[in-house]
Amino acid sequence: MTDIALEKANKAAQAAAEKLAELQAVADEKAAQVAAERAERAKAFDQRTADTWQEEAKRLADEHQDGMRRFMELLQEEPWFEALLAARTARWAHVHFVGYANSAKYRATGQRTNGNMPNPGPTDSPFLDLIMREGERIAKSRAADYMDERAQERERFINGEVE
């Protein structure tokens, strides 16, 4: 390569570097502007949430109360629940009666029953535990979906996609 060709290549490289620096400066400026706009929108969204959080919290609390009320109404219509209630009622009646019988025997004879009464069975139902575990798993998943939606709403607002 000749000195002239080398000089031309250096000038072309220098011109390209200068053009690249100009373009990079413009891109950096645009990125800074976008970041500033996003930060401003993030602050506005957070302020709006801070100003209105009580309304959403009340809505969610009301939704919980309505759901629990509906659950309790529907639960009482279930035949399996009625059977569970019958079993649990008998269990608690048994517990109370054992205490009553023990007191009666002591008053009548001066002796205790010494726990010779039949065992009323377990106090907790594995069936109810299963229902609660599955219910909690599903409820937590739904709550996570709700929070994902909130995060997406915030991101759309920050990106200027919605007002």
Characterize the structure shown.
This protein is mainly α and 163 residues long. The chain folds into 3 domains: 1-68; 78-122; 124-163. The protein has helices spanning 3-75, 79-109, 126-158. α1 crosses α3. The longest helix is centred in the N-terminal third of the chain and has 73 residues, at 3-75. The protein is rod-shaped, with a radius of gyration of 36 Å. The protein starts with a helix and ends in a 5-residue tail after the last helix. The mean pLDDT is 89.
Brief description of this entry?
The protein has helices spanning about 5-75, 80-110, 125-160. By secondary structure, it is mostly helical. It has 3 domains: about 1-70; about 80-120; about 125-163.
Mean pLDDT: 89
* Envelope shape: rod-shaped
Helical fraction equals over 70%
Which regions are unreliable across 5 or more consecutive residues at pLDDT < 50? Answer: none
Secondary-structure element series: HHH
Give the tally of β-strands: 0
What is the CA-based Rg, rounded? Answer: 36 Å
Integer tally of domains: 3
Q: What distance separates the N and C termini? A: 61 Å
As a percent range, the share of strand residues is: under 5%
SSE class: mainly alpha
So how many helices? 3
Sheet of most strands: none
Write the layout of secondary structure elements.
Layout: H1 3-75, H2 79-109, H3 126-158
Helix pairs in contact: 1-3
